[in-house]
């Protein structure tokens, strides 16, 4: 066998010991060939780590320190060129003054930074008219075929993960040298925010942690393990509600290839890696959950849980030590939050949470409770001591078996539970019920005047609707929002309904006007039907007033908002998997063409994400972005086609509704023309 054949055979061995034994046999008596193959294997590893450079500004582009001497690290970094010279080798002349040049249809502005495996630049996509980050594989690594192939394979795997909390990969290119085109994030990293502000507030910890867990859940769903979750790989967008993005999937591996890199070197950042990762053992998605626990610990306390003077000492602490209790570091840290973090930091993966989605759901629930009620009902047992942070809720023994004392214990416990249930009923009667009654009188702020007010499409509540067919929307999250003016007499009318194909497993989401709830009281709401019978979240009804109504489904819960004020929440799930399979959009009626709406609609937008997480101020005009599936401004003013302003071509067919072209005087018939059915 020649050198090439031996190398290609060697990279197929996942276990370093087996690979070394194979090379000993294949290269016996040929030391020079063995040295060359070892060098190729090292280059093969480096190419697989190319994605480590995050697509952010210079201040956030910092290498991970693995040596014990900061001076050595700084000196090595100072010797590296900026990367501009290497990048220029592959660029065509620039068309913009002062810019570096063009790479395909990307105009490169300047270098953001470089690492051992590649160069990152800020660029402008001329075709799609947006700012992007371009990551160029180190030309030295790109010169050999195996690193190129591995880089392209892993980059395409990461590109398949589409989630709002993961930096998006827009393109993977091979010529003139392998490079990626990624979403550009101008905000700081979580590490930079903590460096500037110190420990974060509890609500910020819950919100950021929930988003990181949601992003990891999306990666884990396609069998990808990140392996390097740390504060510098979490980017903050700086927009309201502080959206985050997970970046740096350079160490990501499929579940069946996640123990060691191909050279047998342990990969990751010691301060945040899981014990099994530090020991070089086989990994699964729960290693990312341990890293998330370390990040949450640092957000609360201001420092990582396993600090030490050297890399070896850090790894030893990760494998053997229990972190200092958070309440000792930051007094008044909630016990329920510490319980979640220490469960994530369990040494044994079996003792941790078993999925990132479970963590996201729990943190989201705690955040909602804290915002709405100011308190949290713990769902994870608190730690009992610094050395025993076991947080798993153990199931009780069967009361029908065991000793007499056991049965006496359960009898006493039953009496106590009965008393508690009675107190809960009393509390509902005295506290919850009056608040529910007052809820109908809750003040909903009026919307400011709008240019679109008084014009739109009017539905008579008898036989008017709009139908949008042939959709193929398969997503775990949705937002349906509309500016509507319900007629005072609107009763059980569906404003908008997004539904799957009719059948046994029919799924839908809708905004609607409800019927009477109490004498003199009316309701509106948002409904959803999936695997279980339909669920409704309600709010007050206001006939004759223009309102912004929003249904927001975040993958687990439906939330209903009126003019940006949260009204209620319900839980639901689709029939199969995590995605809802929607194929039709109905405006002014339900999917069965019943429950017809009476009133006017002047704006409507459907999005593939949960746009709102808490109270918000509605924009006066809904606009399209990359998250928009369909957008209707109701500006056609005539004809039987409702135009989709998002550019996706989901135009609607109008059946009988009337175009309103101007605001009518009070008590007069509005000018307009009724659209006859096609």
Task: Write the SSE topology.
Elements: H1 3-10, H2 16-26, H3 31-48, H4 70-79, H5 84-88, E1 101-103, E2 106-114, E3 118-125, E4 130-137, H6 139-142, H7 145-159, E5 169-173, E6 179-183, H8 190-197, H9 202-221, E7 224-225, E8 234-236, E9 244-246, E10 253-254, H10 275-278, H11 286-301, H12 311-320, H13 326-329, H14 335-344, H15 356-373, H16 404-439, E11 456-460, E12 465-468, E13 473-475, E14 478-486, E15 494-499, E16 508-516, E17 522-529, E18 535-540, E19 546-553, E20 557-562, E21 565-571, E22 580-582, E23 584-587, E24 598-607, E25 628-632, E26 641-642, E27 652-655, E28 658-660, E29 672-674
Antiparallel strand pairs: 1-2, 2-3, 3-4, 4-6, 5-6, 7-10, 8-9, 11-24, 11-28, 12-23, 12-27, 13-22, 14-19, 14-24, 15-16, 15-23, 16-17, 17-18, 19-20, 20-21, 24-25, 26-27, 28-29
Give me the CATH fold name of the largest domain: Jelly Rolls
CATH uppermost class of the largest domain: Mainly Beta
Indicate the mean pLDDT.
77
- Name the beta content range: 15-25%
* Major sheet attributes: 9 strands, antiparallel
Number of strands: 29
Taking Cα atoms only, what radius of gyration do you get, to the nearest Å?
Answer: 29 Å
Q: Enumerate the spans where pLDDT stays under 50 for 5 or more consecutive residues.
A: 46-81, 254-265, 384-407, 428-441, 664-670
Number of domains: 5
Number of helices: 16
Oligomeric category: single chain
Described by the principal axes of the CA atoms, the overall outline is globular
Helix share of residues? Answer: 25-40%
The helix/strand class is alpha+beta
CATH architecture of the largest domain: Sandwich
What is the CA-CA span between the terminal residues? 74 Å
């Amino acid at each position: 066998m020649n050198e090439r054949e031996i190398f290609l055979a060697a990279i197929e061995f996942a276990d370093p010991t087996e690979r070394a034994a194979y090379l000993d046999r294949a290269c016996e008596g040929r030391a020079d060939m063995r040295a060359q193959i070892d060098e190729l294997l090292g280059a093969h590893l480096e190419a697989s780590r190319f994605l480590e450079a995050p697509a952010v500004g210079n201040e956030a582009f910092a290498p991970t320190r693995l040596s014990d001497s900061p001076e050595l690290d700084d000196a090595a970094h100072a010797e590296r060129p900026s990367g501009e010279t290497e990048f220029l080798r592959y660029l065509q002349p620039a068309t913009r003054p002062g810019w570096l040049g063009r790479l395909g249809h990307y105009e490169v502005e300047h270098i953001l930074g470089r690492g051992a495996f590649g160069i990152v630049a800020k660029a402008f996509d001329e075709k799609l008219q947006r700012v992007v980050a371009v990551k160029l594989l180190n030309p030295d690594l790109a010169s050999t075929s195996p690193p190129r192939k591995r880089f392209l394979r892993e980059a395409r795997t990461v590109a398949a993960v589409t989630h709002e909390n993961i930096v998006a990969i827009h393109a993977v290119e091979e010529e003139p040298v392998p490079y990626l085109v990624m979403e550009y994030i101008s905000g700081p990293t979580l590490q930079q925010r903590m460096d500037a502000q110190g420990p974060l507030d509890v609500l910020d910890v819950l919100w950021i942690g929930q988003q990181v867990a949601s992003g990891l859940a999306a990666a884990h769903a396609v069998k990808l393990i990140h392996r390097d979750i740390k504060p510098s790989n979490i980017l903050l967008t700086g927009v309201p509600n502080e959206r985050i993005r997970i970046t740096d999937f350079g160490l990501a591996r499929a579940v069946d290839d996640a123990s060691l890199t191909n050279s047998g070197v342990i990969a990751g950042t010691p301060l945040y890696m899981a014990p099994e990762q530090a020991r070089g053992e086989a990994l699964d998605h729960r290693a990312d959950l341990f890293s998330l626990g370390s990040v949450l610990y640092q957000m609360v306390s201001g420092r990582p849980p396993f600090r030490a003077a050297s890399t070896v000492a850090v790894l030893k602490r990760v494998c053997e030590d229990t972190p200092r209790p958070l309440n000792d570091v930051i007094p008044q840290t909630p016990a329920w939050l510490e319980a979640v973090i220490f469960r994530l930091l369990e040494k044994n993966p079996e003792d941790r949470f078993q999925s990132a989605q479970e963590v996201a759901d729990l943190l989201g629930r705690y955040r909602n409770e804290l915002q709405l009620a100011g308190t949290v009902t713990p769902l994870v047992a608190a730690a009992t001591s610094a050395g025993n942070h076991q947080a798993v809720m153990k199931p009780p023994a069967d009361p029908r078996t065991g000793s007499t004392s056991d049965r006496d214990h359960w009898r006493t416990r039953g009496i106590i539970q009965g008393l508690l249930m009675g107190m809960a009923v009393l509390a509902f009667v005295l506290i919850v019920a009056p608040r529910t009654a007052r809820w109908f009188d809750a003040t909903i702020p009026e919307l400011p005047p709008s240019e679109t007010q008084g014009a739109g499409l009017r539905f008579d509540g008898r036989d008017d609707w709009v139908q949008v067919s042939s959709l193929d929307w398969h997503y775990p999250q949705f937002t349906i929002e509309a500016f509507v003016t319900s007629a005072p007499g609107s009763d059980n009318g569906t404003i908008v309904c997004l539904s799957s194909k009719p059948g046994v497993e029919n799924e839908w989401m809708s905004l609607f006007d409800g019927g009477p709830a109490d004498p003199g009281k009316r309701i509106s709401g948002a409904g959803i039907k999936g695997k279980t019978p339909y669920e409704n979240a309600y709010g007050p009804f206001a006939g004759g007033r223009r309102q912004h109504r929003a249904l927001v489904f975040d993958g687990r819960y439906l939330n209903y908002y009126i003019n940006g004020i949260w009204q209620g929440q319900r839980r639901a799930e689709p029939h199969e998997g995590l995605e809802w399979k929607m194929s039709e959009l109905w405006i002014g009626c339900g999917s069965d063409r019943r429950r017809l709406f009476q009133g006017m609609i002047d704006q409507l937008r459907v999005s593939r994400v949960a746009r709102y997480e808490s109270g918000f101020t509605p924009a006066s005009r809904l606009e399209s972005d990359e998250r928009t599936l369909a957008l209707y401004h109701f500006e056609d003013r005539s004809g039987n086609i409702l135009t989709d302003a998002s550019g996706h071509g989901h135009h609607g067919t109008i059946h009988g509704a009337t175009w309103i072209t101007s605001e009518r005087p009070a008590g007069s018939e509005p000018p307009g023309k009724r659209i006859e059915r096609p």
